């Protein structure tokens, strides 16, 4: 198994949009895929989560602006981020909890940087 791989980060002006992708390969079943973010000198923040049954969750700071959806691969998600603000700047990490070899493990990707300039 390998850790999830994130992509799609970049630099945009405030009000712009980005779409992040996360793909997790080599697992049998995964019960959720989540996005977290961390800005310099701030604690990690839970941004959004999609469960394997289709339920989704959003943090208060991104409700109405971000949308998480299923990706094309078996274990993949997109995070569509619209109306970006400077406070959305940070490293965005994908986390997933998957079954491997009969046990469940939590995996965290290496992150993709999002920078929003005002």
SSE order and pairing:
Layout: E1 5-7, E2 10-13, E3 18-23, E4 29-38, E5 45-51, E6 56-58, E7 66-70, E8 76-81, E9 90-100, E10 103-108, E11 112-117
Parallel strand pairs: 2-11
Antiparallel strand pairs: 1-3, 3-8, 4-5, 4-9, 5-6, 7-8, 9-10, 9-11
Task: Provide a brief overview of the structure.
By secondary structure, this protein is mainly beta. It has strands at 5-7, 10-13, 18-23, 29-38, 45-51, 56-58, 66-70, 76-81, 90-100, 103-108, 112-117.
The coarse silhouette is: elongated
Number of strands: 11
Radius of gyration: 14 Å
**What level of helicity do the residues show?**
under 10%
Mean pLDDT across every amino acid position: 95
Order of helices and strands: EEEEEEEEEEE
Low-confidence stretches: none
Number of helices: 0
Major beta sheet, specifics?
Answer: 7 strands, mixed
Structural class: mainly beta
**Distance separating the two termini:** 40 Å
Q: Report the portion of residues in β strands.
A: over 45%
């Amino acid at each position: 198994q390998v850790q999830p791989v994130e992509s799609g980060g970049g630099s945009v002006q405030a009000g712009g949009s980005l779409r992040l992708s996360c793909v997790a390969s080599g697992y049998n079943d995964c019960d959720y895929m989540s996005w977290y973010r961390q800005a310099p000198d701030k604690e990690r923040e839970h941004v959004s989560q999609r469960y394997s049954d289709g339920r989704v969750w959003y943090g208060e700071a991104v409700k109405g602006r971000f949308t998480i959806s299923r990706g094309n691969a078996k274990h993949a998600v997109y995070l569509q981020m619209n109306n970006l603000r400077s406070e959305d700047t940070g490293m965005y990490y994908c986390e997933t909890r998957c079954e491997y070899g009969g046990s469940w493990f939590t995996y965290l990707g290496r992150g993709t940087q999002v920078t929003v300039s005002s």
